[in-house]
# Entry
Amino acid sequence: MAITEYDAAWYYEPVQAARRPVWTQLSFCLPASIRRPAAPTGTYRLHSDGRYQTPGWARAQRPAAVLNDGRICPPAVRGQIAMFPAPYRLLEHHAVLLRDRLRGDLERLKPLINEVQKEHRLGRTWRVSAKDALALALAARDAAGQDLVDAAILDALPHRPSGVTTVLNKAGLLAPDLDHGVAVLPHAQRARSQPQPRSCEQCLSWGRNQLCDACRHWRRKNADQQGCCGRCGAGPLPLQNGRCRDCTSLRLRLGPDTDASTWRQLRFAGPSRPAGISASRPEVHRADRLVLSPPVAQHAGQLTIFEAERDWRPLVNALLPSPPPSVTTLLEDFARHATEHRWSRQSHESTARVLRMAAIWLGAETTFREDDLRALTRACRSGGRIGGLVAFLNQREQLLASPPRRNRNEAFVQRSIAAFPPRIGDELGPWVRVLRGTTRSHHLATDYGTIRRYLSYLATPLADWTSGYTTLRQVTTTDVTTAVTAVKGPRAHERAVALRSLFRALKHAKLVFADPTRSLHVTRQELLPTTLAPDRLAGLLETSANPATRLVLALVALHATSGTDLPDLTLSDVLLTRRQLLIRRPHGRHIVHLDDTTAALLHTWLRYRHRRWPRTANPHLLVTQQTASTTDPICTDYIYRRFTPAGVTLRAVRADRILDEARETEDPVHLVRVFGISVTTAMKYIHTAHPHRGGPVPH
# Structure
């Protein structure tokens, strides 16, 4: 009864009140007819509106709020110089506890707050937030012993309304930004404070991150082994053979004798060795900047014990020595090469920096490895043209080209097959070889992208069969039907196509006795081509002034050229005297007869190409700034992106052109001759344009 009626100490702080002596009121025991029911505490805490409401007697005894808490930003002596800057940690509720201390300062800033509020048409909510932010900024200024508010204080505010900086600037309370030489900068343009050094949690190395790069890589590699190190006892840490990363490194460099001790080597966080240092030499660490003195180039005729990938990151912030005359001559030749190929200044400077660093370190007369140049470009985060630099060094016969890179789709296929049990993996290998055309000369090679999609369609059935079967010979027609009917719609058709391809290849390689997909039939809904609205095609050529873009738009919109044909066009495929364009495809050739508009756009592009890149050796018709220095074709995405400003897609424009021609004729042979499409595709367009012809669309 006391707690629910008059004891506010128990109401607000029951834990502290329970430790103090209390008294209770004596009362009479009244008859049951006039007994007063006891009211529980909860009735005062939650009312019908669902909100917490304190009873009136408790609000009357509530202690006064502390508006000048001395624990928050205690003022320091003005003009005192701090030994080191300390980070500010300001919270929103701190402003309420500082209002009485800064009441005079806030009153002097009140006219300026009103002025900024009227000038920017801000609301009442901004006024309250601005006062809280100004109170925190002024309190932090007093705690630092300064007369003006530093920019670092503004960055530490939990929230800063848009006009706080303006109010402080008008009041003359904002310190100048010495880094930029101006009174104040917008918050988005102000330089961020540098991160404070800290120790790595695992190896205790001195760096910038909570976990250094080496320990992060070690944790990913040994995530399955956690515990205390058997040598130094530190832990729990990722372990390898019972030792942490530091102890493993010491054992490799100093031998097994280090197992008898428990000391650890402290170091700076960073690369374990600079570029070019042999793996057998002691580990070398650097500070923020490394000064390389006298010649660092390799000696002529020096043999390499073994090939090792260089770590070029230590050279990124290094102060390299002045380039010798041979390196200067190489850079001058490269500058002439960039001028002849019309490189921009930014591309030339970023690429020349990579060449300068590689030439100073390795020597100007050496043969540069393509892998080293690409690794150095990634380390420098340079936006230069590595392809142009490779072409320049290749012309000078100073390039050691890297081996052909394996297609990422090919790597995925090989990894996926290797993950299956040995016997099933041995059966999937011939399937890939059959699709790639290595077992049949007349079979067209299937690209690895299609095989990768087939494997994704077969992921679930193969996983189910692997758990119950040891070979694909055990798969029956019932298993195949169950796998296909488990999904619906287009996914069922995709899975059926992949299963039919797999078992037909295994039957061809004589690895299965019977094809379980022989009687498999899956129907699907055929999507017919659609036409575009006339207003979407109007002014298509006027959407861009680029000659290459206009030529691509004309070839697709007028001649229905596919996006995979355009990147492979070469200059020898252009027959100007006959006004023809030869398109080479895997199944044959197709000749495009150019109209006046397309021929004029082709002439314009050829003149621009010769004027823009007069010395390019790229044989392809379409080149870009990146491919002009090489002999590679442009990517397919470049072709598809030409239609983005017009708001249409290449496939939609091409389908609209073929469908428009199909409306003028009912002869599918005419479509085959004009556009070079297959008979099946031609019949699909004929049935769409002339539904009265009826009949099923051939598959």
Remarks:
- The radius of gyration is 38 Å.
